[in-house]
Design goal:
The chain has 383 residues and is mostly helical. The protein has three domains: 71 residues; 88 residues; 166 residues, Intergrase catalytic core (hpI Integrase, Chain A). It contains 14 helices and six strands. The strands form two sheets. It has a three-stranded antiparallel beta sheet with strand order 1-2-3, covered by helices on one side. Strands 4-5-6 form a three-stranded antiparallel beta sheet.
Length: 383
């Protein structure tokens, strides 16, 4: 019995801008359908994972082939439309219909950088904002429904919830997703342009531990305390090292002979020539680190960041310290306390791994504030 496959006449398009549906014979005997995309001198291929059988034996198989070809042509038309709209700075019709919340979630799922936790948190903030201020969009919002006016209200919402740099941190991550949406031609015009989150980035907003509070914390021991968290946080209080760097420190980072700790900061790795930090170690810090093992290993074997923060909160509560102490508070406490004891700002900047004095200056302002509080704590003078 003679069998035939439907003859398909691909749309040729223009010479410079072509999206052509093509066929490739496979060793299995089937035919794979793919797109040959030629756009502005660049050729790419998109394999559709659609297959047809060239040796159909009955009407059912022929109908299956026909439907497969129709689907392939629909995809080809869609790709051509997307590329043509992109060429003229327009959003393709198909993109206008997507749920931006699904797009946001897909962005998170594929995100691999260190600030993924903050990207997730910014998404939660945005969804909560929609539920409170735009309930009609809480489950589904189209890209063109995200307006500049909405962004102004979103920033006000963030500022009302967050202390210090928190609002700015969330907004920066949100803008990252919006920019990606613009780059992917999901949004035609960035609604965040001209919308600014104004906070004093140089103000120190996190709680810090005074010398007396540090002594109080160090003298607090209790049953069930996580000793690795205790050891690591004390190390941060005395060195100012970030949590993201503490967790990666190895014994090979320690020069026992010269009493020196050297490591590359995770935050600036590959971005700054000054990403390496050298910290002198006194006997107390060397004692916290311990002797070098025969095989290199992590100095501090810590649980997850959330578990570390939970253990730290329990510890500060047991010490009756009525402050919201996070791991980063340890870094701030280190900087403020050594400045208060007379350390030079350039020295502090070097120990913290700052490339300049801009970020270190907020600690000098905190020291000035502490001095003012100390003066104001004296009995009032009445003349």
């Amino acid at each position: 019995m003679k069998t035939t496959i439907r003859k398909f006449n691909p749309r040729k398009g223009t010479k410079k801008n072509n999206v052509v549906l093509r066929e490739k014979a496979l060793s299995s005997g089937n035919i794979s359908l793919y797109l040959d995309i030629y756009r502005d001198g660049i050729r790419t291929y998109e394999f559709l994972k659609l297959y047809v059988n060239p040796k159909t034996r009955n009407p059912v198989e022929r109908e299956t082939n026909r439907q497969t070809f129709e689907l392939a042509e629909k995809i080809r038309t869609q790709r051509e439309s997307e590329l043509n709209h992109l060429a003229f700075g327009e959003v393709a019709p198909g993109m206008k219909k997507i749920n931006f919340l699904d797009f946001y979630q897909a962005y998170i799922d594929n995100y691999t950088k260190a600030d993924k936790r903050m990207i997730k948190a910014s998404f939660v903030r945005f969804k909560n904002f929609l539920a409170e201020h735009y309930p009609q969009y809480k489950n589904n919002i189209k890209p063109d429904q995200i307006t500049k006016n909405m962004m102004v209200k979103f920033v006000e919402y963030l500022e009302s919830l967050s202390k210090g740099e928190g609002a700015l941190t969330f907004y920066k991550r949100f803008k990252k997703v919006i920019k990606y949406a613009v780059d992917e031609n999901v949004i035609s015009k960035n609604p965040c342009n001209g919308v600014v989150c104004r906070v004093d980035e140089h103000a120190l907003k996190k709680d810090i531990l005074s010398i007396e509070e540090m002594k109080k914390l160090l003298s607090t021991n209790y049953e069930g305390q996580n000793l690795e968290v205790r050891r690591a946080f004390i190390f941060t209080l005395y060195t100012g090292i970030r949590h993201c760097d503490i967790i990666n420190l190895k014994y090979n980072n320690v020069d026992y002979s010269n009493k020196l700790l050297s490591f590359e900061q995770s935050k600036t790795k590959g971005k700054s020539s000054g990403s390496w930090v050298n910290i002198p170690l006194n006997e107390g810090l060397l004692s916290l680190i311990g002797e070098k093992p025969a095989k290199d290993d992590l100095i501090f074997k810590l649980p997850s960041q959330s578990m570390c923060l939970r253990a730290l909160k329990t510890w500060t509560n047991k010490a009756q310290i009525d402050k919201n102490i996070t791991w980063h508070s340890g870094r701030h406490s280190f900087a403020v306390n050594i400045l208060n004891n007379g350390a030079n700002i350039k020295t502090v900047a070097s120990l913290l791994g700052h490339s300049g004095l801009k970020h270190t200056e907020k600690y000098t302002r905190a020291v000035d504030s502490l001095k003012e509080l100390a003066i104001n704590s004296l009995p009032k003078l009445n003349f």
